[in-house]
Amino acid sequence: MKLLIKAPAKINLSLDVLHKRSDGFHEVEMIMTTIDLADRVELTFLEEDAIRINSQNRFVPDDQRNLAFQAAKLLKERFQVKAGVHISIEKNIPVAAGLAGGSSDAAATLRGLNKLWKLNLTLDELAELGSEIGSDVSFCVYGGTALAKGRGEKITQLPPPPTCWVVLAKPFIGVSTADVYRRLELSGISHPNLPAMVEAIKEGSFNGVCDNVGNVLEEVTLKLYPEVAQIKDQMQRFGADAVLMSGSGPTVFALVHHDSRMHRLYNGLRGFCDQVFAVRMLGERHTLD
Ligand SMILES: C[C@](O)(CO)[C@H](O)COP(=O)(O)OP(=O)(O)OC[C@H]1O[C@@H](n2ccc(N)nc2=O)[C@H](O)[C@@H]1O
Ligand SMILES: Nc1ncnc2c1ncn2[C@@H]1O[C@H](COP(=O)(O)OP(=O)(O)OP(=O)(O)O)[C@@H](O)[C@H]1O
């Protein structure tokens, strides 16, 4: 038996850090939403007791370091599964980009193996297991749009944001999330207005969403990599309605209402950025079928 599962990227419309915790993680408040830029995870049932993985992407590990492998191992050990799986990942999401590509592959593997290995777990149970793999995995198990608290694993669903284009550009650098959090100076940061963003999403106000995007990690990554700030400037010049870095970066995204402006931005950015995408947000959260 074979399953093909879509593993979409996320963007952070709002990312705030409240304080550093005693376990070394940071207490965050974020609004995340999935976008129509996705990896494809193919799971093939194996009779033998083994987890095999391949991704054919030189930046992605083909072994136990892969987050999808870790998801399979976690389920296998926790529920004493005797069968195995071959995981094949078609990588379309840029790696180490702030788009949760690895986390989404892990979440897709959890959802898929739940079916392939007939575990009958709920989405809530899968999300809780996912938090053991990484802070973004719980959100990726549900997808859609959500408020995430704690270290990112406490999820409250939100309605989908108003329809618009998301134009993403990633410069040719990878960013270490751990490094960005480590360099964050909490004193004197200006916090995004998260309640205003939640309100704007609930009211379906595109202007409200644009007025309230914010990410406290931007300052750290922009200082380390000036090319990220340059992309932000370019996007603003090409007429984006809002511009923000996603997660710990370096991907920057623009929200754009009009088709013509989306084309202008997309074509303009392709001139000096190696990876550019124009996609929609995905309204629907994942379901278990
Ligand atoms: C930047 C974001 O992607 C925004 O959605 C997430 O906060 C990070 O999520 P992630 O990549 O799944 O993070 P993890 O793999 O759990 O952690 C990577 C590293 O980031 C730091 N980290 C992560 C999450 C968090 N709330 N506080 C942290 O300080 C820790 O040093 C951790 O060792
Ligand atoms: N399935 C996977 N896809 C991509 N990277 C993976 C995967 N599994 C493990 N990794 C490792 O994780 C690192 C971070 O990759 P990923 O693309 O998930 O980062 P990210 O988008 O910045 O994540 P986040 O937004 O959650 O911080 C990579 O350098 C890679 O070595």
Protein model, in words:
It is globular, with a radius of gyration of 19 Å. The chain folds into 2 domains: 157 residues, Ribosomal Protein S5, domain 2 (2-Layer Sandwich), CATH 3.30.230; 116 residues, GHMP kinase, C-terminal domain (Alpha-Beta Plaits, 2-Layer Sandwich), CATH 3.30.70. Strands 1, 2, 3, 4, 5, 6 and 8 form a 7-stranded mixed sheet that branches. It has a 4-stranded antiparallel sheet with strand order 9-10-7-11, with helices on one face. It has 10 helices and 11 strands. With 289 residues, the chain is of the alpha+beta class. The mean pLDDT is 96. Adenosine-5'-triphosphate (ATP) binds next to α1 and α2. 4-diphosphocytidyl-2-C-methyl-D-erythritol binds next to β1, β2 and α5.
